[in-house]
Amino acid sequence: MLRWGKQSPTPDGPAPAGCGGVHPPGNEAARQALTNLGPHYLPVRTGERAGAIVPDANGPGRRTRLAAALRGHGAVIGANVPLDQLPASADLAELTADLARTGALSGDPVFVEDHLDAVIAHRDRASARPAARAVPGPLDGAAPASRQVLQDTLRCWLRHMGDRAVMAE
Questions:
Q1: Do the beta carbons of residue 55 and residue 88 sit within 8 Å?
Q2: 115 and 158 housed in the same domain
Q3: What is the pTM of this model?
């Protein structure tokens, strides 16, 4: 359990309203970059994962300082969240790191908040795959020619967000 107070990154103040996590890749240079963050960050290590908790990650100038200290190390900076939401934020940061490694996201460091839409889309897609495989596709029983026409119609409907006037053109 984290305790804010005299041993905390904010020695004389109250616990911050929010904080973000810094998640470097597992190399020594990236871990060393965490020391560049200074005394106002709480280093953490869980198993093989090392990182830091940044109080008030959206504070004035904080993002710029984080980017400068961590540039070139492939780090991910998690969303600024209340303390009790740090575990969920860390999970999103880990998914963000995976997406950045595959080239799906750009930036160095990568800020989760800049890519939240893509991260959520990939997270939901991954969790929906087992259910999608378990339910037979509604077009599986259609004849191949009909299936193609129905797929084209659905694609057009999605592209134009159901606007029938545009679809009719």
A1: no
A2: no
A3: 0.63
